[in-house]
Design a protein that fits this description.
With 353 residues, the chain is an alpha/beta fold. The chain is 37% helix and 16% strand. The protein folds into two domains: 2-144, Rossmann fold, CATH 3.40.50.2000; 162-351, Rossmann fold, CATH 3.40.50.2000.
């Protein structure tokens, strides 16, 4: 049996499909499973033990997109898949699903894309009541007769890359970080500005955590496009930390595999609801997750409940959750109402012996 899984675009959404990958392999142990993904999120599934093949979909522009997608469609058709599951549900993934001509094609029952699938699963845009994104993805497995997921058995996964772990070790050694030092990783950026906690708040929290214990090392990380913002946070945090300023570190940028390896050896991860948070969730490291317009019920780490994780948010607001297209109050209060003390208090609870 040949199975194709499709999930395009965002890193976190690809992470949320990883419990389903393992479940599908349990259901069809002899199947050959292929995963179609875009390049930014490919490291998430690169070493997944249940996958036999990974196809990376490019995103050319203009007319080149049509000719490229036609070639991809022909390639997918030639592989003669028996089952295709479209976890993405977009126009492009729907078209490629249809192009496989697989006997069973499962996708969401979305207007304009129903024709892509032989089996359609209900889907709703509503944010209330909230349902975890893993459960949204898992719903596509219902037609296969699978039981609901278990957080312990069906946790999100990403296999740690050994070479990436070695690079992280070398970088920390070069920065003078002792092997036994408690590491706190603070990721200060998010691709979506609606999920970006203020830089001054990050700096205050980092300085407080560094000052509480002289053994700690606080590593400020960010996405490649927000390097300057991370440097500014680190500089501000060092000023606030005073005599403990040396504990605030910037050790360069980390790709996804390196970030996962770094968090894997850390004592704590702090960050907003973005791809890196969900990469962190694939480790056993405790997490403080900051939620602005999104809800913990939808995006908290999906893993063994015994691993510490605390959601910090502004509480109930009439504008929350939102679709993150326009801030109705205009002041991003769902983020600005999260104080550094709230985050530090949550962090200290998780760091306590």
């Amino acid at each position: 049996m040949r199975i194709l899984l499709i999930r395009l675009r965002l890193i976190g959404d690809v992470v949320f499909t990883t419990p389903a990958i393992g479940a599908i392999k349990r259901r069809f142990p002899e199947a050959r499973i292929t995963y179609l993904v875009e390049d930014p999120a490919e490291p998430v599934v690169r070493h997944h033990p249940a996958l036999d093949e990974i196809l990376v979909l490019e995103r050319p522009r203009g007319l080149a997109r049509w000719t490229y997608d036609l070639r991809v469609a022909r390639e997918l058709r030639s592989k003669r898949f028996d089952l295709v599951i479209d976890f993405h549900g977009g126009p492009r993934s729907g078209l490629l699903t249809w192009a496989t001509r697989a006997p069973q094609r499962i996708g969401y029952d979305l207007p304009g894309r129903r024709w892509s699938y032989t089996t359609r699963v209900p889907w709703t845009r509503s944010l209330v009541p909230p349902r975890h994104s893993v459960l949204n993805q898992w719903a596509l497995l219902d037609p296969l007769g699978l039981d609901p997921p278990d957080r312990g058995r069906d946790a999100v996964t990403m296999v740690t890359d050994g070479a990436a772990a070695d690079r992280v070790t070398q970088r920390l050694d070069a920065a003078g970080v002792e092997r036994g030092a408690p590491l706190i990783v603070i990721h200060v950026s998010a691709g979506n500005p609606f999920r970006r906690w203020p830089a001054a708040a990050f700096a205050s929290a980092a300085a407080s955590l560094a000052s509480e214990d002289s053994r700690r090392r606080v590593i400020i990380t960010s996405g490649p496009s927000e390097r300057a913002a991370a440097e500014a946070v680190a500089e501000h945090a060092r000023i606030l930390a005073g005599d403990n300023s040396a504990a605030i570190l910037r050790t360069g940028e980390f790709d996804l595999t390196e970030l996962q390896a770094l968090v894997d050896r850390a004592a704590l991860y702090i960050g907003g609801d973005s791809g890196p948070l969900h990469i962190a969730a694939t480790t056993r490291t405790p997490i403080v997750a900051l939620f602005g317009p999104t809800l913990p019920e939808r995006s908290m780490p999906w893993r063994d409940p015994s691993i510490g994780a605390i959601a910090v948010d502004a509480g109930p607001l009439p504008c929350r959750p939102c679709h993150q297209r326009h801030c109705v109050p205009g002041d991003f209060r769902c983020l600005t109402m999260i104080s550094p003390n709230m985050v530090v208090d949550a962090a200290e609870r998780l760091l306590a012996p």
